[in-house]
Amino acid sequence: MGQYYKIVNLDKRQYLTPWAFGDGAKLLEFGMSASGVLMGLALLLADGNGRGGGDLSQSGTVKGDASDLGYKALGKCPKHMRVECQWTHKQTTVFQTRVPSIVGSWKGDRIVVAGDYADPGQYGYDSDRVIEHVERKLPDGFSGSPKDSDYIEVVEKSVEKETNLYEVARLEFEDISVPVLAAMCQDDYFLIEHLDSMKDTWVASNGVTSRWSRDQVFVEALLLDPRILQTTREWAEKNDVPLPLALRPKVKKSKAVPDILPEFANAPTHD
């Protein structure tokens, strides 16, 4: 079998899963990917994104008297975005650039591309949750008390064996693949390219997605931002693609009209 990897942040206790980005999880599979998990990693490590051409950002302008313009001119900035920079031009126009808040959140941190065959015990993680996980995997018929020296020895050896970073991340850390994928979708070219890659799958399944599939992860990412969700719906209508149920616009239920209005229910009838 091949070795699978996660990209792990030791300081933030977070990680990325290559599968969530449509990549294989083996080193050379995602290492050669053009727009997958390594793109997500680049965004997390970026310092100064949103201040120049080719960056990942949303830009907007408002014209008017600069004395009346400010950060509120373009509307309230969503929680998952931040204002990276704002400036005025000739006192008549305000320019504002917004970027996903998650971009740059890993800069300066210790990052490890952790394999599931890596040596255990390198990073000192030995938590109660890992110990509980080890105890559940003890051999059938093994019994003992945490006070027994034999029991303690078996658990300690098992913990040492289990605690490579790949396994610790799975048990203890936060998978931020979905919000990072949502940030990548702020780029319209990437979003449409990704939607086009899902087109045949959604058409064949009539919009039904498997809970653990790549397209379900993509659906979760699209739901995090109203703008990319609206772009997705417009793309689906244009291309006649059935969207997964979670992405479809909600239909307002109309109140049923009774056959006979209550005030006339007991009215006399005339033959």
Report on this structure:
With 271 residues, the protein is an alpha+beta fold. Among the domains are: 1-46 and 104-122 and 163-184, no CATH class; 58-100, no CATH class; 188-246. The protein contains nine helices and seven strands. Strands 6-1-2-7 form a four-stranded mixed beta sheet, sandwiched between helices. α7 (188-205) crosses α9 (226-239). The N and C termini lie far apart (85 Å).
Number of helices: 9
If you compute it from the alpha carbons, what radius of gyration comes out, rounded to the nearest whole angstrom? 26 Å
For the secondary structure, the number of strands is: 7
Strand order of the largest sheet: 6-1-2-7
In short:
The chain is α+β, with helices and mostly antiparallel strands. It contains nine helices and seven strands, in the order ββααββββαααβαααα.
Question: Descriptors for this entry?
Answer:
single chain, 271 residues, alpha+beta, four-stranded mixed beta sheet, three-stranded antiparallel beta sheet, 9 helices, 14% strand, globular
Annotate the secondary structure layout.
Elements: E1 5-9, E2 14-16, H1 27-31, H2 37-45, E3 58-63, E4 81-89, E5 93-100, E6 111-115, H3 128-136, H4 149-162, H5 165-172, E7 174-175, H6 177-184, H7 188-205, H8 214-222, H9 226-239
Parallel strand pairs: 2-7
Antiparallel strand pairs: 1-2, 1-6, 3-5, 4-5
Helix pairs in contact: 2-6, 3-4, 6-8, 7-9
